[in-house]
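Entry 14. Structure prediction run on the chain below.
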Amino acid sequence: MTIKELHIGDSDSMSKTITETDVYLFAGITGDLNPAHVNEAESSKSPFGGRIAHGILSAGLISAVLAMRIPGPGTIYLGQELKFTKPVRFGDTITATCTVAEILEEKNIVKLETICANQDGDVVIKGMATVMPPK
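Output returned:
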């Protein structure tokens, strides 16, 4: 979608169930082998009481919405503010939703509210993305 096709309040989303395999693949790709994610014995002693997914793994779903849904293919991701509000556990289904919040037509820039929620509707990530939609 071009900037002329976008309107304040336009929104789209996608969902994914976060698996143990996803977490281990992400850990291997990034090198983030924090015991909170990959060591059940150690992570069971944490305030979370067990392993949790990397926060940025779930945030990656926001990137997928921006790239494939709204604005869609050709979008350039310029920036992202994130606040991680709850842990994501293995088996949680996370829905990332992006909603157009501001349009700066003269600069071809759009700001979108970004929210990730689990299957219970609990917000696990909230923030704001800045993108350049395709021309």
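The mean pLDDT is 97.
Filed with the rest of this week's runs.
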